[in-house]
C-alpha cells in the first residue's frame, strides 16, 4: 500500500524486477557483512539474515544453464598441462563449468583440454559469423554461461549452438592428433577409399577424424548422459534434444572430411599422387549446419519417452538434422528473463530486404542515420619482386542503427 493505493506485479514482472535488483542486493549484502564483521556491530542473528540475503541475490546471478557451461573453456585460456604441478587434479580443479563426468575425462586426458577449449572457441566464433546479420547474433554474455539465459529455451538457435560447439571439438581434437600434440592418438588410420585410383598412394598424415569424433562424443555428451530426469518430462525432452544436436554437429565434421592429394614427379608431372584424409574448412561446416538450422524439425516428447515430430507430414529427422522443442523468441526487445539482448543499437542495411535490413532487424521501430568515415586499402600495385603496395583511402559513408 503506497499513498492510499495498492499495486501488484505479475509473476513474470516480479521475476524480471528481481533479476534487475539481484546485482544491487548482492553487492549491498556482501558489503554489509564485511562492514559488520569489521566493526562487530551486529549480532549473530542479524549476520545470518544478511548472509541469507547476499547468498540468494548472488546465487540468482550465477549461470542457470548448466548444459552449455563447458563452452566457457572457449573464453578462458587454458594453460598447457606442463605449466601445472605434476598430476591431473591441479589442472582439472581450476577449470570451471565441467560436469562430474567431464572432470573425470579431464583427469584421464589432461593434454586434450587445451584443444577442447580451442574447439569451443572455434564453434563460438563460427556461430557469431553465421548469425552476424540476424536479430540473434550469438552474442556472448559472460565467461560462465557464455550465451546466457537464452540457452534455456530449446529453440532453433540453441540447436545450432550445441551442434556447432560439438563440431568445433571434433575439428580441434582431430587436427591435434595429426600434429602429434596428443599422447593417445596420431595420424588418421582411415581405410583406403575404394574409388581411389590404384596407382595413387594412400598414406601421408591425415586428420584423425575418427578419434576426434569418438572423443567429442564421450566428452560433450557426458554432461547430458549423467542427468537422471523422469522419462517423458520436459527436462528429459531437452536432454534428448541436446544429444541429438550434439550428434548432428559431429556428423557434419565427420561426413564433410574429404580426400586430399599431393602430386609427385619430375618437374611437377604428377606421375604419382599421395592422398590422405583431411578435414573440411570449418566455414563449410558452419554453412552446412546453418542450412540444417533453417530446416530444423519441431519435436515433442512422445508417450514412449522419445522425441517425435510435432507435424507427422514431415520426414523424420536424420542424425544429421537439427531438432528443437520450443518456438524462438523474436529477439526484438531486451528481455532479462529469456536472455534476449534485443536489437537496439544494432547496425542494419537500409537497402536490404533480408534479415539484415533495417525493417526486419529493427522490428519496425525505425532507425537512426549518421555519417562516418570508412578507411580501406585501395590502388594496390604489385612490385617486382615481391610485395604489394597499397594506398589508404578514406570515404564518408552512411550508417544506420536501430532505435
From TrEMBL:
Subcellular location: Secreted, Extracellular space, Extracellular matrix
Domain of life: Eukaryota
UniProt keyword Secreted present: yes
A GO-annotated cellular component: extracellular space
Major subcellular site: secreted
Keywords: Developmental protein, Disulfide bond, Extracellular matrix, Glycoprotein, Lipoprotein, Secreted, Wnt signaling pathway
Family of this protein: Belongs to the Wnt family.
Stated role: Ligand for members of the frizzled family of seven transmembrane receptors.
Protein name: Protein Wnt
Organism: Gouania willdenowi
Lineage of producing organism: Eukaryota, Metazoa, Chordata, Craniata, Vertebrata
